[in-house]
């Protein structure tokens, strides 16, 4: 309880003064209940037990329940899954069901509680909590680069196919324009439905993708991917944890929100 013996003694004396009755008999070696104290203890003991039980139940509710999540594929496999053990250790009684989603969730038509969106942060009827920005940089498999076509500056990428995400076709154009380059001078490569797939294709040597280095760190570490230029695409898009504004936030939802935001802060500080 983080209360010192002296503080407890003062509380007891205060109670005895309030009641006008001696509850404890103090000897040199110990403190024992008086007859009045014994009589008083019997009815209030059950009250304290009920208080303890209610408190434990309330705390248990905060760490139990179920949660259904829909998460963008790249964020799911590359960021969330490697960290889920931490959440399960903190909240072992929360049952989680996770699905992959490449678009907006129709919360009214299914039983999804929360989702991770990638976008501007403004969606009608949606409560959005900022998680992290988009940090996209050119990456490719080193084997893709030919000896006679080295990539030493951004303009050198025009000799290689640029891999695109279908719903984010302008990302390469924006990155190239930020470096005063004409997108029409570059080769358009394969298109994929998600950033996770473009990164995978780049790792297979199919071209250059715009990927978040943090989300493809395992491939960077093992040499399957290399960051060509540490110059990120400047964009107003980011990852957000979202849910319907009109719905009540359950203890499980609150626990996950607090956990994931805290993890983001730790990652940024690290």
UniProtKB/TrEMBL annotation:
GO terms for biological process: DNA-templated transcription. Residues 1-34 form the HTH lysR-type domain. InterPro entries: LysR-type_TF_proteobact-type, LysR_HTH_N, LysR_subst-bd, WH-like_DNA-bd_sf, WH_DNA-bd_sf. GO terms for molecular function: DNA-binding transcription factor activity; sequence-specific DNA binding. Keywords: DNA-binding, Transcription, Transcription regulation. The keyword Nucleotide-binding does not apply. It comes from the Bacteria. The keyword Transcription applies. PROSITE patterns: HTH_LYSR. Belongs to the LysR transcriptional regulatory family. This is LysR family transcriptional regulator.
